[in-house]
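Write out the 3D structure for:
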Amino acid sequence: MENTTLKSDIAKNILESNLKREHKTFSKNACFSNYAIRFGNETIPDRVNIRPSFFHDTDKIIHSLAYTRYIDKTQVFYLFENDHITHRVLHVQLVSKIARVIGRALSLNEDLIEAIALGHDLGHVPYGHDGERKLNELLHSETSEYFCHNAQSVRALQLLEQKGKGLNLTLQVLDGILCHNGELMLDQYNPDYKKTKEKFLEEYENCWKIEKFSKDIISMTLEGCVMRISDVIAYIGRDLEDAIILGLIERNDIPQSIVETIGNTNAQIINNLALDIINNSFQKKYIKLSKEKYDALNAFYEFSKEAIYQNPKKSHQDDKIKNMFNVLFERYLKDLKADNTKSTIIKYYLKSMSDDYREKTSNPKIVCDYIAGMTDDYFNKEFQNVMIPQSFGYKV
């Protein structure tokens, strides 16, 4: 079958149009597509690709295997039988939409914002942050490294995809993903505009070496900063609605001071915080919340921690989940050491990876990569396969 190619005059026209559109509509503080930096060469170089660099990165992300597995990854609430509860795949879409609304109002690069938003949680493990804390404990006990989903998201995209070859995403997208911490809020985000490729790589390595290092790093672009605060806006109100649906709290439980400042519904919270950011960040080199909204957001987060995230109704199965991680991590380590080719970690995971990955990656890190990439459902099935005897079938 003959490949279809674009006529050279049409391609040239599209490339010129893309460039003019950005220079006509973008703020001087935005990250233009021709600023993009990659770690390797592209089959079609960015300068002659009709898909702008960050737009192309979004395509790479949504076609990745890791993105496909978003569909059955926990956001906050697990073990609840309700089809209306937010899963990770919906969360990243909500982050993308909120961030793009703010980014468009501030004349920033929406392509970059979307790529960061859709890729930022790919490193999340089964059972959300609770699973992440347990996997961190297990990895640290074996290697003295620290696990955080930020760095694992970068690792998944840049190293694990395509059988260990990676996707060759741009520095700006990877940086936004690494720096996206949504659990530590600031009233003002000042991009590290002078960040180099070398500094990014140093920050990435430090995320594995230094406990909670990822909480203190800031993106090199305004777009990355917009996505970071949008992550908070996307989950804080949505988690509230999910908690109400599940009967963990009631709407009137929210302190009145918070309600008066940012509202008590997801829609009100998104609208009030997004407009506040736009008002305080328009034509600025930083992203800022007013003190009033920032204080209310922090108060709401503290309320949510106690009333929602640490609610006994949500956490009473946590010991069982921690034990599941213990069992699977130990079992996979034994299987790798014994070269048990019947084990799924070898049969379905390791054999699909490159020789370079197998040679350079320690067994604990291989186990960590395998578990981190699992959906909740696959994780549960693996535990059942390990712990529950299998039937030999009916014999006559």
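The first strand starts at residue 188 and ends at 189.
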